[in-house]
# Entry
Amino acid sequence: MARWRPLPDSLPREARRLVEQLRGLKDRTGLSLAEPARRTAYSKSSWQRYLSGTKQPPRGAVQALCRVAGADQARLLALWGLADPVWPRGVVLGADTGGVAYPIVADSAVVPA
# Structure
């Protein structure tokens, strides 16, 4: 099984704990990264972002992974509840850039004048 890349340094402790637990759950299933995408409403690229810590997984994704893995949702949803308020908003965490956070900038064509 491939090793996970380190999580971004800027990821808060609570969010880090959630991602680590999700990674462990996925690893225990023995499934490829593509399999949760086939079995849930979330794409492979979404799962890559969630499990790399670059994007916050929605509550529904946590529930879906628990269902796929046959795991109890209560503990992971409790971790999600702790991570949700501290997860960086409006930024993309760069895993390949040492965890540097970059602001998300809206396209000027879709921003009302």
